[in-house]
Design a protein that fits this description.
By secondary structure, the chain is α/β, with parallel strands linked by helices. It folds into three domains: 109 residues, Glutamyl-tRNA Synthetase, domain 3; 162 residues, Orthogonal Bundle (Glutamyl-tRNA Synthetase, domain 2); 122 residues, Ribosomal Protein L25, Chain P. The chain has 13 helices and 27 strands. Strands 12-25-26-27-23-24-13 form a seven-stranded mixed sheet. The protein has a seven-stranded mixed sheet with strand order 21-18-19-20-14-17-22, with no helix packed on it. A four-stranded antiparallel sheet has the order 4-5-6-7. The protein is elongated, with a radius of gyration of 31 Å. The two termini are 31 Å apart. The mean pLDDT is 95. It binds adenosine-5'-triphosphate and magnesium ion. The site of adenosine-5'-triphosphate has 16 residues, from α2, β8 and α9.
Protein backbone atom coordinates (compact mmCIF):
# COMPACT_ATOMS: atom_id res chain seq x y z
CA UNK A 1 0.00 0.00 0.00
CA UNK A 2 1.00 3.56 -0.54
CA UNK A 3 2.25 5.56 2.45
CA UNK A 4 0.08 8.49 3.25
CA UNK A 5 0.67 9.56 6.83
CA UNK A 6 2.41 12.83 6.03
CA UNK A 7 2.05 14.77 2.82
CA UNK A 8 5.19 15.51 0.79
CA UNK A 9 6.96 18.79 1.45
CA UNK A 10 6.46 21.83 -0.74
CA UNK A 11 7.41 25.51 -0.76
CA UNK A 12 4.61 26.38 1.66
CA UNK A 13 5.73 23.76 4.17
CA UNK A 14 9.27 25.14 3.84
CA UNK A 15 8.01 28.61 4.77
CA UNK A 16 6.18 27.14 7.75
CA UNK A 17 9.29 25.22 8.84
CA UNK A 18 11.25 28.50 8.77
CA UNK A 19 8.54 30.39 10.67
CA UNK A 20 8.56 27.74 13.39
CA UNK A 21 12.36 27.57 13.50
CA UNK A 22 12.63 31.35 13.88
CA UNK A 23 9.85 31.28 16.51
CA UNK A 24 7.79 33.69 14.43
CA UNK A 25 4.92 31.38 15.25
CA UNK A 26 4.58 28.67 17.86
CA UNK A 27 1.48 27.19 16.30
CA UNK A 28 0.26 26.87 12.73
CA UNK A 29 -3.30 27.93 11.97
CA UNK A 30 -4.70 27.62 8.44
CA UNK A 31 -8.21 27.93 7.06
CA UNK A 32 -10.30 26.62 4.23
CA UNK A 33 -12.67 29.42 3.16
CA UNK A 34 -15.33 28.26 0.70
CA UNK A 35 -18.08 30.57 -0.44
CA UNK A 36 -21.30 28.64 0.24
CA UNK A 37 -22.75 29.25 -3.22
CA UNK A 38 -22.29 25.78 -4.67
CA UNK A 39 -20.84 22.34 -4.05
CA UNK A 40 -17.12 21.78 -3.65
CA UNK A 41 -15.17 20.35 -6.58
CA UNK A 42 -11.89 18.53 -6.87
CA UNK A 43 -10.03 21.87 -7.07
CA UNK A 44 -11.31 22.57 -3.59
CA UNK A 45 -10.10 19.10 -2.57
CA UNK A 46 -6.59 20.28 -3.38
CA UNK A 47 -7.03 23.28 -1.10
CA UNK A 48 -8.62 21.13 1.63
CA UNK A 49 -5.80 18.57 1.53
CA UNK A 50 -3.26 21.39 1.62
CA UNK A 51 -4.80 23.37 4.49
CA UNK A 52 -6.04 20.49 6.63
CA UNK A 53 -2.97 18.42 5.78
CA UNK A 54 -0.69 21.15 7.11
CA UNK A 55 -2.76 21.46 10.30
CA UNK A 56 -2.58 17.67 10.77
CA UNK A 57 1.16 17.37 10.14
CA UNK A 58 2.15 20.42 12.24
CA UNK A 59 -0.33 19.64 15.03
CA UNK A 60 -1.95 22.99 14.49
CA UNK A 61 -5.50 23.60 13.41
CA UNK A 62 -7.46 24.40 10.29
CA UNK A 63 -10.60 26.48 10.43
CA UNK A 64 -13.55 25.90 8.21
CA UNK A 65 -14.72 29.37 7.31
CA UNK A 66 -17.84 29.96 5.29
CA UNK A 67 -16.85 32.95 3.22
CA UNK A 68 -20.39 34.27 3.15
CA UNK A 69 -19.80 38.01 2.78
CA UNK A 70 -21.96 37.99 -0.36
CA UNK A 71 -25.64 38.11 0.53
CA UNK A 72 -27.45 34.94 -0.51
CA UNK A 73 -30.89 33.65 0.29
CA UNK A 74 -30.31 29.92 0.52
CA UNK A 75 -26.92 28.86 1.59
CA UNK A 76 -27.77 26.15 4.12
CA UNK A 77 -27.83 23.36 1.54
CA UNK A 78 -24.34 24.38 0.43
CA UNK A 79 -23.02 24.78 3.98
CA UNK A 80 -24.24 21.27 4.83
CA UNK A 81 -22.78 19.82 1.63
CA UNK A 82 -19.41 21.51 2.22
CA UNK A 83 -19.19 20.08 5.73
CA UNK A 84 -20.16 16.60 4.57
CA UNK A 85 -17.57 16.73 1.79
CA UNK A 86 -14.69 17.89 4.03
CA UNK A 87 -15.52 15.14 6.53
CA UNK A 88 -15.79 12.52 3.83
CA UNK A 89 -12.35 13.53 2.56
CA UNK A 90 -11.10 12.58 6.01
CA UNK A 91 -10.61 15.95 7.69
CA UNK A 92 -12.11 17.69 10.68
CA UNK A 93 -12.15 21.31 11.79
CA UNK A 94 -12.58 20.21 15.42
CA UNK A 95 -15.28 22.72 16.20
CA UNK A 96 -13.55 25.61 14.41
CA UNK A 97 -16.40 26.46 12.10
CA UNK A 98 -16.75 30.16 11.39
CA UNK A 99 -18.76 32.46 9.19
CA UNK A 100 -17.30 35.61 7.72
CA UNK A 101 -20.75 37.21 8.09
CA UNK A 102 -20.33 36.97 11.86
CA UNK A 103 -17.48 39.48 11.51
CA UNK A 104 -19.64 42.17 9.89
CA UNK A 105 -19.83 44.24 13.13
CA UNK A 106 -16.03 44.08 13.67
CA UNK A 107 -15.35 44.96 10.04
CA UNK A 108 -17.70 47.89 10.25
CA UNK A 109 -15.97 49.23 13.39
CA UNK A 110 -12.63 49.01 11.65
CA UNK A 111 -14.10 50.78 8.63
CA UNK A 112 -15.15 53.69 10.86
CA UNK A 113 -11.65 53.75 12.29
CA UNK A 114 -10.17 54.05 8.80
CA UNK A 115 -12.60 56.86 8.02
CA UNK A 116 -11.68 58.75 11.21
CA UNK A 117 -8.00 58.41 10.34
CA UNK A 118 -8.60 59.80 6.86
CA UNK A 119 -7.79 56.44 5.22
CA UNK A 120 -11.20 55.79 3.69
CA UNK A 121 -13.88 57.97 2.11
CA UNK A 122 -17.43 57.80 0.85
CA UNK A 123 -17.61 58.10 -2.92
CA UNK A 124 -20.81 59.25 -4.63
CA UNK A 125 -19.69 58.01 -8.03
CA UNK A 126 -21.49 55.11 -9.63
CA UNK A 127 -19.81 51.74 -9.99
CA UNK A 128 -19.40 52.57 -13.65
CA UNK A 129 -17.65 55.86 -12.98
CA UNK A 130 -15.35 54.21 -10.44
CA UNK A 131 -14.42 51.63 -13.04
CA UNK A 132 -13.88 54.20 -15.76
CA UNK A 133 -11.62 56.42 -13.66
CA UNK A 134 -9.49 53.57 -12.40
CA UNK A 135 -6.87 54.00 -15.14
CA UNK A 136 -5.01 51.22 -16.88
CA UNK A 137 -1.83 49.27 -16.36
CA UNK A 138 0.09 52.10 -18.09
CA UNK A 139 -1.89 55.16 -17.02
CA UNK A 140 -2.74 56.27 -13.49
CA UNK A 141 -6.32 56.52 -12.31
CA UNK A 142 -8.19 59.77 -11.73
CA UNK A 143 -8.90 60.60 -8.09
CA UNK A 144 -12.57 60.74 -7.20
CA UNK A 145 -13.94 64.30 -6.82
CA UNK A 146 -15.16 63.11 -3.38
CA UNK A 147 -11.75 61.89 -2.26
CA UNK A 148 -10.99 64.90 -0.07
CA UNK A 149 -14.12 64.92 2.02
CA UNK A 150 -13.42 65.53 5.70
CA UNK A 151 -13.36 62.55 8.07
CA UNK A 152 -16.45 64.03 9.81
CA UNK A 153 -18.45 64.18 6.59
CA UNK A 154 -17.30 60.68 5.62
CA UNK A 155 -18.24 59.27 9.02
CA UNK A 156 -21.69 60.82 8.82
CA UNK A 157 -22.21 59.46 5.29
CA UNK A 158 -20.94 55.98 6.18
CA UNK A 159 -23.31 55.79 9.15
CA UNK A 160 -26.20 56.87 6.96
CA UNK A 161 -25.18 54.31 4.35
CA UNK A 162 -25.33 51.67 7.03
CA UNK A 163 -28.73 52.93 8.23
CA UNK A 164 -30.14 52.56 4.75
CA UNK A 165 -30.64 56.21 3.83
CA UNK A 166 -29.26 55.85 0.29
CA UNK A 167 -30.33 53.76 -2.68
CA UNK A 168 -28.43 50.65 -3.77
CA UNK A 169 -25.30 51.42 -5.73
CA UNK A 170 -25.48 55.16 -5.12
CA UNK A 171 -22.37 55.32 -2.93
CA UNK A 172 -19.41 53.20 -1.88
CA UNK A 173 -16.84 53.33 0.85
CA UNK A 174 -13.35 53.34 -0.66
CA UNK A 175 -9.95 53.01 0.92
CA UNK A 176 -7.75 56.04 0.26
CA UNK A 177 -4.50 54.54 -0.96
CA UNK A 178 -2.89 55.59 -4.24
CA UNK A 179 -4.63 56.30 -7.55
CA UNK A 180 -1.25 56.22 -9.32
CA UNK A 181 -0.14 52.86 -7.95
CA UNK A 182 1.08 50.49 -10.65
CA UNK A 183 -1.03 47.88 -8.82
CA UNK A 184 -4.64 48.53 -9.78
CA UNK A 185 -5.84 46.87 -6.61
CA UNK A 186 -4.35 49.75 -4.60
CA UNK A 187 -6.20 52.47 -6.52
CA UNK A 188 -8.69 53.40 -3.83
CA UNK A 189 -10.37 49.97 -3.74
CA UNK A 190 -14.01 49.68 -2.76
CA UNK A 191 -14.60 48.41 0.79
CA UNK A 192 -18.41 48.54 0.98
CA UNK A 193 -21.30 48.57 -1.45
CA UNK A 194 -24.93 49.37 -0.72
CA UNK A 195 -27.05 46.30 -1.52
CA UNK A 196 -30.49 45.70 -0.08
CA UNK A 197 -30.32 41.94 -0.20
CA UNK A 198 -31.34 39.34 2.29
CA UNK A 199 -28.50 37.39 3.87
CA UNK A 200 -29.07 33.83 4.99
CA UNK A 201 -27.25 34.47 8.26
CA UNK A 202 -27.70 38.15 9.05
CA UNK A 203 -31.15 38.56 7.55
CA UNK A 204 -31.91 42.19 6.69
CA UNK A 205 -29.63 43.62 9.35
CA UNK A 206 -27.16 44.94 6.81
CA UNK A 207 -27.66 46.86 3.62
CA UNK A 208 -23.97 47.46 3.06
CA UNK A 209 -21.72 44.50 2.33
CA UNK A 210 -17.92 44.34 2.49
CA UNK A 211 -15.85 43.37 -0.54
CA UNK A 212 -13.80 40.20 -0.60
CA UNK A 213 -10.49 42.05 -0.22
CA UNK A 214 -11.64 44.04 2.77
CA UNK A 215 -13.22 41.08 4.53
CA UNK A 216 -10.78 38.29 3.84
CA UNK A 217 -7.56 39.41 5.50
CA UNK A 218 -9.39 40.91 8.47
CA UNK A 219 -11.27 37.61 8.93
CA UNK A 220 -7.92 35.81 8.87
CA UNK A 221 -6.63 38.22 11.52
CA UNK A 222 -9.69 37.81 13.75
CA UNK A 223 -9.24 34.03 13.72
CA UNK A 224 -5.49 34.16 14.31
CA UNK A 225 -4.67 32.50 11.01
CA UNK A 226 -0.91 32.28 10.54
CA UNK A 227 -0.72 31.20 6.91
CA UNK A 228 -3.51 32.17 4.56
CA UNK A 229 -3.17 29.97 1.49
CA UNK A 230 -4.94 31.00 -1.67
CA UNK A 231 -4.74 30.52 -5.41
CA UNK A 232 -2.45 32.50 -7.71
CA UNK A 233 -5.03 34.95 -8.99
CA UNK A 234 -4.81 36.67 -5.60
CA UNK A 235 -1.10 37.38 -5.91
CA UNK A 236 -1.68 40.96 -7.07
CA UNK A 237 -4.14 41.41 -4.19
CA UNK A 238 -1.49 40.63 -1.59
CA UNK A 239 -0.27 44.27 -1.22
CA UNK A 240 -3.87 45.24 -0.48
CA UNK A 241 -4.29 42.32 1.92
CA UNK A 242 -1.22 43.61 3.76
CA UNK A 243 -2.29 47.27 3.61
CA UNK A 244 -5.64 46.51 5.21
CA UNK A 245 -3.95 44.51 7.95
CA UNK A 246 -1.53 47.35 8.68
CA UNK A 247 -4.47 49.60 9.48
CA UNK A 248 -5.78 47.52 12.36
CA UNK A 249 -4.38 46.32 15.67
CA UNK A 250 -3.92 42.57 15.79
CA UNK A 251 -1.48 40.45 17.79
CA UNK A 252 -0.26 38.49 14.73
CA UNK A 253 -0.55 39.39 11.11
CA UNK A 254 -1.46 36.48 8.86
CA UNK A 255 0.65 35.94 5.77
CA UNK A 256 -0.97 35.29 2.42
CA UNK A 257 0.81 32.68 0.27
CA UNK A 258 -0.38 31.83 -3.21
CA UNK A 259 -0.26 28.44 -4.91
CA UNK A 260 -1.31 27.20 -8.33
CA UNK A 261 -4.93 26.18 -8.69
CA UNK A 262 -5.73 22.71 -9.91
CA UNK A 263 -6.72 22.36 -13.56
CA UNK A 264 -7.50 18.93 -15.04
CA UNK A 265 -7.92 18.02 -18.69
CA UNK A 266 -11.48 17.26 -19.86
CA UNK A 267 -12.74 18.75 -16.59
CA UNK A 268 -14.39 22.06 -15.81
CA UNK A 269 -13.64 23.45 -12.37
CA UNK A 270 -15.79 26.47 -11.75
CA UNK A 271 -18.63 26.45 -9.28
CA UNK A 272 -20.53 28.99 -11.34
CA UNK A 273 -20.37 26.93 -14.52
CA UNK A 274 -21.04 23.67 -12.70
CA UNK A 275 -24.04 25.36 -11.13
CA UNK A 276 -25.25 26.26 -14.62
CA UNK A 277 -25.08 22.60 -15.68
CA UNK A 278 -27.26 21.74 -12.70
CA UNK A 279 -29.70 24.64 -13.16
CA UNK A 280 -30.12 23.92 -16.86
CA UNK A 281 -30.72 20.23 -16.30
CA UNK A 282 -27.69 19.18 -18.34
CA UNK A 283 -26.72 16.85 -15.48
CA UNK A 284 -28.94 15.22 -12.87
CA UNK A 285 -27.66 17.37 -9.99
CA UNK A 286 -24.54 18.52 -8.14
CA UNK A 287 -23.87 14.87 -7.32
CA UNK A 288 -24.31 13.56 -10.86
CA UNK A 289 -21.57 10.92 -11.14
CA UNK A 290 -20.09 12.79 -14.13
CA UNK A 291 -19.59 15.97 -12.13
CA UNK A 292 -16.09 16.84 -10.80
CA UNK A 293 -17.73 17.84 -7.53
CA UNK A 294 -16.69 15.92 -4.45
CA UNK A 295 -20.30 14.77 -4.14
CA UNK A 296 -20.26 13.62 -7.77
CA UNK A 297 -16.93 11.83 -7.44
CA UNK A 298 -18.16 10.12 -4.28
CA UNK A 299 -21.30 8.89 -6.02
CA UNK A 300 -19.21 7.85 -8.99
CA UNK A 301 -17.32 5.57 -6.62
CA UNK A 302 -14.12 7.49 -5.96
CA UNK A 303 -12.64 6.88 -2.53
CA UNK A 304 -11.35 9.62 -0.21
CA UNK A 305 -7.98 7.81 -0.17
CA UNK A 306 -7.73 8.14 -3.94
CA UNK A 307 -8.46 11.86 -3.86
CA UNK A 308 -5.95 12.46 -1.07
CA UNK A 309 -3.28 10.43 -2.83
CA UNK A 310 -3.96 12.29 -6.07
CA UNK A 311 -3.55 15.61 -4.24
CA UNK A 312 -0.24 14.40 -2.78
CA UNK A 313 0.95 13.35 -6.21
CA UNK A 314 0.12 16.57 -8.02
CA UNK A 315 1.93 18.52 -5.32
CA UNK A 316 1.77 22.22 -4.64
CA UNK A 317 3.60 24.61 -6.92
CA UNK A 318 3.81 28.29 -7.69
CA UNK A 319 3.16 28.06 -11.43
CA UNK A 320 -0.14 27.20 -13.06
CA UNK A 321 -0.34 23.95 -14.97
CA UNK A 322 -2.88 21.39 -16.08
CA UNK A 323 -2.90 17.85 -14.79
CA UNK A 324 -3.92 15.01 -17.11
CA UNK A 325 -7.18 13.42 -16.01
CA UNK A 326 -5.48 10.05 -16.54
CA UNK A 327 -3.39 10.73 -13.44
CA UNK A 328 -6.58 10.94 -11.38
CA UNK A 329 -8.06 7.82 -12.98
CA UNK A 330 -4.85 5.82 -12.64
CA UNK A 331 -4.47 6.75 -8.99
CA UNK A 332 -7.97 5.46 -8.37
CA UNK A 333 -7.37 2.25 -10.34
CA UNK A 334 -4.20 1.59 -8.39
CA UNK A 335 -6.08 1.67 -5.07
CA UNK A 336 -9.18 -0.18 -6.28
CA UNK A 337 -7.06 -2.89 -7.88
CA UNK A 338 -5.79 -4.13 -4.53
CA UNK A 339 -8.91 -3.60 -2.46
CA UNK A 340 -12.02 -4.34 -4.48
CA UNK A 341 -13.48 -7.84 -4.90
CA UNK A 342 -13.86 -9.25 -8.40
CA UNK A 343 -16.97 -10.76 -9.86
CA UNK A 344 -18.46 -11.65 -13.23
CA UNK A 345 -21.00 -9.46 -14.95
CA UNK A 346 -22.17 -9.88 -18.52
CA UNK A 347 -23.00 -6.45 -19.87
CA UNK A 348 -24.70 -7.37 -23.18
CA UNK A 349 -25.76 -11.00 -22.86
CA UNK A 350 -25.64 -13.61 -25.61
CA UNK A 351 -27.12 -16.99 -24.71
CA UNK A 352 -25.03 -20.14 -24.97
CA UNK A 353 -26.54 -23.62 -24.70
CA UNK A 354 -24.05 -26.22 -23.52
CA UNK A 355 -25.23 -29.30 -25.38
CA UNK A 356 -23.23 -31.82 -23.35
CA UNK A 357 -24.53 -30.49 -20.01
CA UNK A 358 -27.73 -31.90 -18.58
CA UNK A 359 -30.64 -29.57 -17.99
CA UNK A 360 -31.08 -28.91 -14.27
CA UNK A 361 -27.55 -29.93 -13.31
CA UNK A 362 -25.63 -27.27 -11.36
CA UNK A 363 -21.90 -27.31 -10.74
CA UNK A 364 -21.00 -24.90 -7.97
CA UNK A 365 -17.49 -23.76 -8.69
CA UNK A 366 -15.61 -22.24 -5.80
CA UNK A 367 -13.83 -19.09 -6.95
CA UNK A 368 -11.82 -16.61 -4.87
CA UNK A 369 -12.86 -12.95 -4.95
CA UNK A 370 -9.22 -11.89 -5.13
CA UNK A 371 -6.73 -14.44 -6.43
CA UNK A 372 -3.83 -12.90 -4.49
CA UNK A 373 -5.70 -12.36 -1.25
CA UNK A 374 -7.46 -15.37 0.31
CA UNK A 375 -8.72 -13.13 3.14
CA UNK A 376 -11.13 -11.56 0.64
CA UNK A 377 -13.01 -14.89 0.66
CA UNK A 378 -14.66 -16.77 -2.16
CA UNK A 379 -18.06 -17.58 -3.59
CA UNK A 380 -19.72 -20.39 -5.52
CA UNK A 381 -20.29 -19.76 -9.23
CA UNK A 382 -23.21 -21.83 -10.51
CA UNK A 383 -22.51 -23.49 -13.86
CA UNK A 384 -25.61 -24.59 -15.80
CA UNK A 385 -26.64 -25.78 -19.27
CA UNK A 386 -27.66 -22.28 -20.35
CA UNK A 387 -25.14 -19.50 -19.93
CA UNK A 388 -24.67 -15.91 -20.95
CA UNK A 389 -21.47 -14.58 -22.41
CA UNK A 390 -20.67 -11.09 -23.62
CA UNK A 391 -22.07 -10.44 -27.09
CA UNK A 392 -18.81 -8.94 -28.30
CA UNK A 393 -16.80 -11.92 -27.06
CA UNK A 394 -18.24 -13.78 -30.04
CA UNK A 395 -17.53 -13.13 -33.72
CA UNK A 396 -19.01 -15.27 -36.41
CA UNK A 397 -16.21 -14.28 -38.76
CA UNK A 398 -13.30 -13.55 -36.46
CA UNK A 399 -11.13 -10.57 -37.34
CA UNK A 400 -7.37 -10.81 -37.31
CA UNK A 401 -6.06 -11.36 -33.78
CA UNK A 402 -9.51 -12.12 -32.34
CA UNK A 403 -8.84 -14.72 -29.64
CA UNK A 404 -12.30 -15.19 -28.21
CA UNK A 405 -15.22 -17.30 -29.34
CA UNK A 406 -16.15 -18.08 -32.93
CA UNK A 407 -17.64 -21.15 -34.67
CA UNK A 408 -15.42 -24.19 -34.20
CA UNK A 409 -13.11 -22.34 -31.79
CA UNK A 410 -12.51 -22.65 -28.05
CA UNK A 411 -12.31 -20.19 -25.17
CA UNK A 412 -11.79 -20.61 -21.48
CA UNK A 413 -14.74 -19.63 -19.32
CA UNK A 414 -13.26 -17.80 -16.37
CA UNK A 415 -12.93 -20.11 -13.31
CA UNK A 416 -14.86 -22.86 -15.20
CA UNK A 417 -14.45 -24.94 -18.34
CA UNK A 418 -13.08 -24.69 -21.86
CA UNK A 419 -16.00 -24.17 -24.22
CA UNK A 420 -16.24 -24.87 -27.95
CA UNK A 421 -18.79 -23.18 -30.19
CA UNK A 422 -20.57 -25.64 -32.48
CA UNK A 423 -23.27 -23.63 -34.21
CA UNK A 424 -25.02 -20.29 -34.38
CA UNK A 425 -28.73 -19.47 -34.32
CA UNK A 426 -29.94 -16.22 -35.92
CA UNK A 427 -33.20 -14.36 -36.13
CA UNK A 428 -34.93 -13.22 -39.33
CA UNK A 429 -32.75 -10.09 -39.44
CA UNK A 430 -29.57 -12.14 -39.26
CA UNK A 431 -28.83 -11.19 -35.66
CA UNK A 432 -27.15 -13.91 -33.60
CA UNK A 433 -29.59 -15.03 -30.89
CA UNK A 434 -27.99 -18.15 -29.46
CA UNK A 435 -24.87 -20.29 -29.62
CA UNK A 436 -24.78 -24.06 -29.28
CA UNK A 437 -21.60 -25.29 -27.63
CA UNK A 438 -19.92 -28.09 -25.72
CA UNK A 439 -17.52 -28.00 -22.80
CA UNK A 440 -14.49 -30.12 -22.19
CA UNK A 441 -15.35 -31.73 -18.81
CA UNK A 442 -11.66 -32.34 -18.05
CA UNK A 443 -10.90 -28.62 -17.94
CA UNK A 444 -12.76 -27.61 -14.76
CA UNK A 445 -10.58 -24.78 -13.44
CA UNK A 446 -7.61 -26.34 -15.27
CA UNK A 447 -5.89 -26.67 -18.63
CA UNK A 448 -6.74 -29.21 -21.33
CA UNK A 449 -5.09 -32.56 -20.57
CA UNK A 450 -3.77 -32.97 -24.09
CA UNK A 451 -1.77 -29.76 -23.82
CA UNK A 452 -3.64 -27.92 -26.61
CA UNK A 453 -3.63 -24.12 -26.29
CA UNK A 454 -6.81 -22.17 -25.69
CA UNK A 455 -6.52 -18.56 -26.79
CA UNK A 456 -8.74 -16.29 -24.78
CA UNK A 457 -10.63 -16.30 -21.50
CA UNK A 458 -14.06 -14.73 -21.19
CA UNK A 459 -16.46 -14.02 -18.36
CA UNK A 460 -19.89 -15.65 -18.20
CA UNK A 461 -22.83 -16.22 -15.88
CA UNK A 462 -25.47 -18.90 -15.55
CA UNK A 463 -28.58 -17.89 -17.49
CA UNK A 464 -31.18 -19.15 -14.97
CA UNK A 465 -29.20 -18.43 -11.79
CA UNK A 466 -27.70 -15.03 -12.60
CA UNK A 467 -29.55 -11.86 -11.61
CA UNK A 468 -30.47 -8.78 -13.59
CA UNK A 469 -28.66 -5.50 -13.03
CA UNK A 470 -28.77 -2.02 -14.46
CA UNK A 471 -25.42 -0.57 -15.43
CA UNK A 472 -24.72 3.09 -15.94
CA UNK A 473 -21.71 3.43 -18.15
CA UNK A 474 -20.26 6.86 -17.45
CA UNK A 475 -17.70 8.57 -19.58
CA UNK A 476 -16.13 12.01 -19.55
CA UNK A 477 -18.64 14.81 -19.35
CA UNK A 478 -16.74 16.85 -21.94
CA UNK A 479 -15.27 15.76 -25.24
CA UNK A 480 -12.62 18.50 -25.37
CA UNK A 481 -9.48 18.73 -23.21
CA UNK A 482 -10.16 22.28 -22.01
CA UNK A 483 -13.91 22.82 -21.71
CA UNK A 484 -15.00 26.43 -21.47
CA UNK A 485 -11.58 27.81 -22.38
CA UNK A 486 -11.43 30.98 -24.44
CA UNK A 487 -14.66 32.01 -26.10
CA UNK A 488 -16.13 28.51 -26.14
CA UNK A 489 -19.52 27.81 -24.56
CA UNK A 490 -19.00 24.69 -22.47
CA UNK A 491 -22.58 23.62 -23.22
CA UNK A 492 -21.58 22.91 -26.79
CA UNK A 493 -18.63 20.80 -25.67
CA UNK A 494 -20.51 18.17 -23.70
CA UNK A 495 -19.77 14.57 -24.62
CA UNK A 496 -23.06 13.16 -26.01
CA UNK A 497 -21.95 9.67 -24.93
CA UNK A 498 -21.17 10.53 -21.33
CA UNK A 499 -23.92 8.19 -20.09
CA UNK A 500 -25.14 4.92 -21.55
CA UNK A 501 -27.61 2.83 -19.57
CA UNK A 502 -27.63 -0.95 -19.91
CA UNK A 503 -30.83 -2.47 -18.55
CA UNK A 504 -30.24 -6.07 -19.42
CA UNK A 505 -26.94 -6.87 -17.73
CA UNK A 506 -26.62 -10.13 -15.79
CA UNK A 507 -24.57 -10.56 -12.64
CA UNK A 508 -23.56 -13.56 -10.61
CA UNK A 509 -25.76 -14.14 -7.52
CA UNK A 510 -23.11 -12.99 -5.03
CA UNK A 511 -23.32 -9.42 -6.31
CA UNK A 512 -27.08 -9.03 -6.50
CA UNK A 513 -27.44 -8.13 -2.82
CA UNK A 514 -24.88 -5.31 -3.00
CA UNK A 515 -25.48 -2.50 -0.54
CA UNK A 516 -25.48 1.07 -1.85
CA UNK A 517 -21.88 2.32 -2.29
CA UNK A 518 -20.50 -1.23 -2.40
CA UNK A 519 -17.68 -1.48 -4.94
CA UNK A 520 -16.93 -4.38 -7.25
CA UNK A 521 -14.61 -5.07 -10.11
CA UNK A 522 -16.46 -6.73 -12.95
CA UNK A 523 -13.68 -8.71 -14.53
CA UNK A 524 -12.44 -7.59 -17.92
CA UNK A 525 -14.74 -4.57 -17.72
CA UNK A 526 -14.20 -2.09 -14.97
CA UNK A 527 -14.75 -0.95 -11.42
CA UNK A 528 -18.33 -0.38 -10.40
CA UNK A 529 -20.17 0.99 -7.39
CA UNK A 530 -23.76 0.36 -6.39
CA UNK A 531 -25.43 3.74 -6.73
CA UNK A 532 -25.95 5.54 -3.42
CA UNK A 533 -29.46 6.65 -4.27
CA UNK A 534 -30.96 4.28 -6.81
CA UNK A 535 -29.45 0.88 -6.02
CA UNK A 536 -31.23 -1.54 -3.67
CA UNK A 537 -30.11 -4.96 -2.50
CA UNK A 538 -31.85 -7.33 -4.92
CA UNK A 539 -32.34 -4.59 -7.52
CA UNK A 540 -28.83 -3.31 -8.11
CA UNK A 541 -27.89 -0.28 -10.17
CA UNK A 542 -24.17 0.00 -10.74
CA UNK A 543 -22.21 3.08 -11.79
CA UNK A 544 -19.07 2.57 -13.81
CA UNK A 545 -16.35 4.15 -11.67
CA UNK A 546 -13.57 3.71 -14.20
CA UNK A 547 -12.85 1.10 -16.86
CA UNK A 548 -10.01 -1.32 -16.19
CA UNK A 549 -7.85 0.39 -18.76
CA UNK A 550 -7.83 3.79 -20.32
CA UNK A 551 -10.15 3.55 -23.30
CA UNK A 552 -9.46 7.08 -24.54
CA UNK A 553 -5.81 6.37 -25.24
CA UNK A 554 -6.79 4.32 -28.29
CA UNK A 555 -9.17 6.98 -29.53
CA UNK A 556 -12.22 5.39 -27.98
CA UNK A 557 -15.03 7.15 -26.16
P1 LIG B 1 -14.83 28.60 -8.19
O1 LIG B 1 -14.10 29.43 -9.20
O2 LIG B 1 -14.96 27.18 -8.58
O3 LIG B 1 -16.11 29.20 -7.72
P2 LIG B 1 -13.70 29.74 -5.92
O4 LIG B 1 -12.27 29.99 -5.72
O5 LIG B 1 -14.56 30.90 -6.23
O6 LIG B 1 -13.86 28.58 -6.96
P3 LIG B 1 -14.25 29.39 -3.19
O7 LIG B 1 -15.39 28.73 -2.53
O8 LIG B 1 -14.11 30.85 -3.04
O9 LIG B 1 -14.35 29.01 -4.71
O10 LIG B 1 -12.90 28.67 -2.85
C1 LIG B 1 -12.54 28.18 -1.57
C2 LIG B 1 -11.08 27.87 -1.57
O11 LIG B 1 -10.77 26.86 -2.52
C3 LIG B 1 -10.26 29.08 -1.94
O12 LIG B 1 -9.18 29.19 -1.04
C4 LIG B 1 -9.80 28.80 -3.33
O13 LIG B 1 -8.58 29.39 -3.61
C5 LIG B 1 -9.72 27.28 -3.35
N1 LIG B 1 -9.90 26.77 -4.70
C6 LIG B 1 -10.93 26.98 -5.53
N2 LIG B 1 -10.74 26.40 -6.72
C7 LIG B 1 -9.53 25.80 -6.66
C8 LIG B 1 -8.73 25.04 -7.57
N3 LIG B 1 -9.15 24.77 -8.81
N4 LIG B 1 -7.53 24.58 -7.16
C9 LIG B 1 -7.11 24.83 -5.90
N5 LIG B 1 -7.80 25.55 -5.00
C10 LIG B 1 -8.99 26.03 -5.36
MG1 LIG C 1 -15.01 32.46 -4.98
Amino acid sequence: MIEESRAPSNFIRQIIDEDLASAKHSEVVTRFPPEPNGYLHIGHAKSICLNFGIARDYKGRCHLRMDDTNPAKEEQEYVDAIKADVRWLGFDWNGHEYHAADYFPRLYEWAEKLVREGKAFVDDQSADEVRRTRGTLTTPGAPSPFRDRSPEENLDLLRRMRKGEFPDGSRTLRAKIDMASPNLNLRDPVMYRIRREHHDRTGDEWCIYPTYDWAHGESDAIEGITHSLCTLEFEAHRPLYDWYLEQIEVPHRPRQIEFARLNITYTMLSKRHLGALVAEGLVSGWDDPRMPTIAGLRRRGYTPEALRLFCDRIGVAKADSTVEVELLENTLRELLNVSVKRALCVHRPLKVVVENWEDGKVDEIEAPFLADDPSAGSRKLPFTRELFIERDDFMEVPGKGFKRLSPGKEVRLRHAYVLRCNSVTKDSRGEVTELRATIDPDTRSGNPKDGRKVGGAVHWVSAPLSKPATLRLYDRLFRVPNPGAGEADFRTQLNPHSLEILDGARIEPAVAEAQPMERWQFERKGYYVADAKDSKPGAPVFNLIVPLRDTWAKGGG
